[in-house]
Fold:
Amino acid sequence: MAIALCASCKSRVEEGAVRCVNCNADLALPGTFTQVLGWVIVAISTIPFAVSEVTTAERDWTPLVLGGLIAAFGFVMVLSGRARNKAATNPVIIEASPTTSQSQ
Ligand SMILES: [Zn+2]
Structure:
C-alpha cells in the first residue's frame, strides 16, 4: 500500500485529499478542476444531442451541430486539464509503504 505525503510539510495525508490538514496546502492538481468542468460540459452536450434525435428527422441540424461543438469544447477542456496536471509538480508525494521498502 502506498502512503500519500504532503509535499510542503511531509505530513501524511489522505489519498485524494484536496487540502492538507496540517499546513493547509492545496493538494489538488491545477488541472483537476478543468477536467471535472470538461466532463460536466460533455454531459451537458447530451441535451442538444437528445433534442437532435427529434429535429434531425425534421432536417434541422442545429441541435446536432450545437451538441457536437459543446462536446468538442468539453473534451478540449479535459485534455488541457490533463496536460496541466502532467506539467505541474504533484503536491502529494506517493511513497511505497515502509514494510515493502523498495528503492526506486
Ligand atoms: Zn502539508
Observations:
- The mean pLDDT is 90.
- The chain has one domain: 2-99.
- The radius of gyration is 21 Å.
